[in-house]
Design goal:
Layout lengths: L3 H15 L3 E5 L5 E4 L2 E2 L6 H7 L7 E5 L5 E4 L5 H7 L5 H7 L4 E3 L1 H13 L4 E2 L6 H11 L12 H12 L3 H24 L6 H14 L9 E3 L19 E6 L11 E6 L6 H20 L6 H18 L7 H7 L26 H5 L26 E4 L2 E3 L2 H10 L8 H5 L6 E3 L2 E5 L4 E3 L8 H9 L1
Parallel strand pairs: 1-7, 5-6
Antiparallel strand pairs: 1-4, 2-3, 4-5, 8-9, 9-10, 11-14, 12-13, 14-15
Bound molecules: glycine (GLY) and manganese (II) ion (MN) (2 copies).
Glycine (GLY) binds next to loops.
Length: 462
């Protein structure tokens, strides 16, 4: 945990921003895997972590904007729990550890909510994303289960986005810790990427490295020789020479700050000519984003500039044709990259996505596009110092999508479908770093992980 003053200051700011009423922040509960007592590893809710920092299950935090008083609610453990878990702090002790003077039971929370509803005071809450928290909110507020999400507070969503989007120095240091562990995950896995190995061996290694850093992975490891499937979670292929291996993986620190890194390497450690050609195009795009991302520029503009680099590269290879600006304006290049350049990252790998992506990645000024590819950009808004975003362009030869566009004649003036036929067995490449927007530009976070063709070949030969 950070010092309790951090949490006190964050809650103080939130109360001021929201201004009136009661704010309810639900922690998470244990989640059963295959029977009640066999649970998934516990993952605290990120908003709860941000404002209260506590890892225990079943906690609910309350901020009273009118009186300025904060509360922590949960039931204390009794001896029947403690014989299984060992001694645990009382809820009042947990509350005191993060500067909260008032604590109570869940029955007392119910009484407070019922009273507040009766007084017609506003109760602000975020849209719950787990069924048990939707049910809890429905009971606390006397709302129908299916009405809970609808009545989530837009004022609270916007206030949390404003606060959490700008990372403090201590948050950035935590994220860099997560990237340092990701360094061990990626460099170790690169060295294992030899013919005859199986994807699951490398994926298992990465998960082990994450836990060695004392945290879980930040999302299910993507480790695949079929990188053309963007989020391929299967790990059963044997590594064969000639395939590109996409490794998209990150971890969380014990405080749950995340990393999200992708490297793509040739099985066996040597790029062939085709692999190097595509790799260098994607890398040029990834580096262009690092060159131009800065305060005042929108990430939509950065995405578009990167798209121009990619389109120019594919045009030089004879895959695309025509004017590069026209190709990008039409969205023809998105056949090879049907996703956006990146997303915010912090306590969630897709930071705050539970609030609704549109409120995190867009605002009144910058609206999402409905164009294929650009429409999948999770963060398009104007960048500010302190934002942490991912920079993750890719190139994917997706046979089903190529066939569909060819059959429909989609962007046929810009796409050389005959040439593309030769690339349909290529797979995919993605390169991803986590960047911090600084006052004048941006900084790639963490210890540098081998990224150029030469660095990767060198690492894989060691
Ligand atoms: N790991 C998922 C992503 O890169 O967004
Ligand atoms: Mn990723
Ligand atoms: Mn990502």
């Amino acid at each position: 945990m950070f010092a309790k003053e951090t949490y006190i200051a964050r809650r103080e700011q939130l109360r001021k921003e929201v201004g009136h009423g009661l704010i309810l922040i639900q922690g998470n509960h244990e989640a059963p895997c295959n029977y009640t007592d066999n649970t998934y590893w516990f993952r605290q809710d990120s908003t709860f972590l941000y404002f209260f920092g506590l890892q225990r299950e079943d906690l609910v935090g309350v901020l009273d904007c009118d009186s300025g008083v904060d509360y922590l609610f949960a039931d204390d453990y009794d001896i029947d729990d403690i014989i299984w878990t060992g001694p645990l702090p009382a809820v009042s002790e947990l509350a005191a550890s993060v500067g909260v003077a008032h604590s109570g039971t869940l029955a007392q929370l119910q009484t407070l909510c019922t009273k507040t509803v009766g007084e017609a005071r506003k109760i602000h809450y975020l849209p719950p994303y787990r069924a048990d928290n939707i049910r809890q909110m429905s009971e606390l507020l006397g709302l129908r289960y299916d009405a809970v999400t609808r009545y989530a507070s837009m004022e609270l969503i916007h206030a949390c986005v404003r606060q959490r989007s700008v990372k403090s120095a201590e948050e950035v240091a935590e994220i860099e810790r997560a990237i340092d562990t990701a360094y061990n995950m990626h460099v170790g896995a690169m060295k294992m990427a030899m013919p005859g190995r199986y994807e699951y061996e490398l994926a298992g290694f990465m998960q082990g490295e994450a836990w060695k850093g004392n945290g879980p992975v930040s999302f299910p490891v993507i480790m695949t020789v079929h990188g053309e499937t963007l989020h391929n979670h299967g790990h059963n292929h044997r590594l064969e020479a000639g395939r590109m291996l996409v490794m998209d993986a990150g971890c969380e620190t014990p405080m749950n700050y995340c990393s999200d890194i992708t490297r793509s390497v040739p099985v066996g450690g040597r790029f062939n000519e085709r692999q190097r050609a595509i790799y260098d195009i994607v890398l040029a795009g990834q580096l262009e984003a690092i060159r131009i991302a800065r305060p005042g520029v929108t990430y939509q503009q950065v995405h578009t500039e990167v798209s121009r680099i990619l389109a120019r590269g594919y045009k030089d290879l004879g895959i695309l044709r025509g004017d590069v600006d026209d190709i990008v304006a039409a969205g023809a290049h998105s056949l090879l990259m049907p996703h956006g350049l990146g997303h915010m990252m912090g306590l969630d790998v897709h930071d705050m996505e539970n609030y609704g992506q549109i409120y995190v990645g867009y605002d009144d000024e910058t609206r999402p596009s409905d164009q294929f590819g650009l429409g999948s950009l999770r963060c398009g808004r104007r960048l500010q110092p302190g934002f942490v975003v991912t920079d993750e362009p890719g190139c994917y030869f997706i046979p089903a999508l190529i066939d569909k566009w060819r059959a429909e004649g989609t962007h046929k003036d810009f796409i050389n479908f005959d040439e593309l036929e030769k690339w349909k067995d290529f797979g995919g490449i993605r390169i991803e770093d986590d960047i911090l927007i600084t006052d004048t530009g941006c900084r790639v976070l963490g210890k540098p992980i081998p990224k150029t063709v030469e660095e990767i070949e060198q690492t894989m030969s060691e």
